[in-house]
Amino acid sequence: MTEENHKGPSRRAFLTGAGVAAAGTLAGGASAAQTDPGIAIHPWMQELGDGVDVAPYGMPSPHEADVKRRTVEWLTADPVSSINFTPLHDLDGTITPNGLCFERHHSGVAEVDPAKHRLMINGLVDKPLVLTMDDLHRFPRENHVYFLECAANSGMEWRGSQLNGCQFTHGMIHNVQYTGVPLRLVLEEAGVKPEGKWLLAEGADAAAMSRSIPMEKALDDCLVAFKMNGEALRPEQGYPVRLVVPGWEGNMWVKWLRRLEAGDQPWHHREETSKYTDLMADGVARRFTWEMDAKSVITSPSPQAPITHGPGPTVLTGLAWSGRGTIPRVDVTLDGGITWHQARMDGPSTPKALHRFYFDFEWDGKPLLLQSRAHDSTGYVQPTKDTLRAVRGENSIYHNNGIQTWAVDADGKAENVEIS
């Protein structure tokens, strides 16, 4: 195997191949302009377009109308307490556009008037507070990029391949830049008493969503956020203010945040007892499994992003993340784990955020078994699904970070499969 073949197709080889194809066309007596219908004079080349005031808030091109969040109708009993999924297969880079960030609601989207909204801090504090949004904006603020992943992401895959598309298997995740106030500053203003070891975060939605958070985490890297990617939170993302709990399961990132209560023990509310616990094979439930383990997925090729160009230079890409730090390395395999190749990491690399990886290779048109395997900065390596099941059984829904497999056939179509 030559060095060039080992690393994938070179730029020179790709351009040389393209040049040979063009020369062959010209030798046949026809120019490229005559044979390619795209080389022509189109209406948009001759007509004036819309002015600057036609779309005061910019929208995607109508040709990108298929790039959208999607739901699975049979997954939940109704669309109010439900979820939709980020179209990971249509995206590149690491930042998720605000309009494509997945949604998870327990009582629908709360439409909150920011002028009437209040954030109360009470319980084991020296000085109970009631803050307006204007009050919050006067605290020192910070900007951080973090991923938010639902604990049930990939949950349908515990018992085998279920949903055909990385949007549905892994799309309960997004990655944005949050702007907000460090939670510790708000708690310092109230003065948490020494016996205050836990914090209850409660939302203003009809479900009164609430979670217990260890005070150690609350005073570490949590944010009280009011902007994402530079603009105000979207209503479905908790407008006007939400909690950000970096690296921990998304259910703890309470939206429409209205109350923070300091206490001496966890509250054991619905979302940390009957839900968001991990049921083991013997029927015992693991609780307080907050951290999201290292995970990755190939977004293209994948079931919703097949190979359409035929054999030749091919770009494989995907995402990796860890709730414990960064992702310095991702391995990929084209043959179901017989041989592994180190992918190329690209773009920003910040803790508890999505990382983009690429692997450029020459596809020979034969079937592929694609997998990715993430390594995080603590030394943890993403496990296989069978490894997870050996420890936790098949009763669980949450925290499935097992390696995902796509089978690509000779036509370039991909399917969700499992291999031993």
Describe the model:
- The chain has 2 domains: 73-286, Alpha-Beta Complex (Sulfite Oxidase, Chain A, domain 2), CATH 3.90.420; 295-417, Sandwich (Immunoglobulin-like), CATH 2.60.40.
- Helix content is 13%, strand content 26%.
- The protein has helices at residues 3-7, 11-27, 32-35, 133-136, 166-170, 183-190, 215-218, 385-392; strands at residues 119-123, 129-131, 142-149, 173-182, 198-203, 210-214, 223-228, 231-232, 242-244, 257-263, 278-279, 285-286, 295-300, 312-321, 329-333, 341-342, 344-346, 355-363, 368-375, 405-408, 414-417.
- Strand 11 and strand 12 (285-286) form a beta hairpin.
- The longest helix is centred in the first third of the chain and has 17 residues, at 11-27.
- It starts with a helix and ends with a strand.
What is the strand tally?
21
What number of domains? 2
CATH superfamily of the largest domain: Oxidoreductase, molybdopterin-binding domain
Strand content: 25-35%
Protein name: Sulfite dehydrogenase
Cofactor: Mo-molybdopterin
Domain Moybdenum cofactor oxidoreductase dimerisation: 287-404
Pfam families: Mo-co_dimer (PF03404), Oxidored_molyb (PF00174)
Jot down its keywords:
molybdenum, 420 residues, Immunoglobulin-like, EC 1.8.2.1, Sulfite Oxidase, Chain A, domain 2, alpha+beta, disordered N terminus, 5-stranded mixed beta sheet
Q: What's the short story on this structure?
A:
With 420 residues, the chain is of the alpha+beta class. Helix content is 13%, strand content 26%.
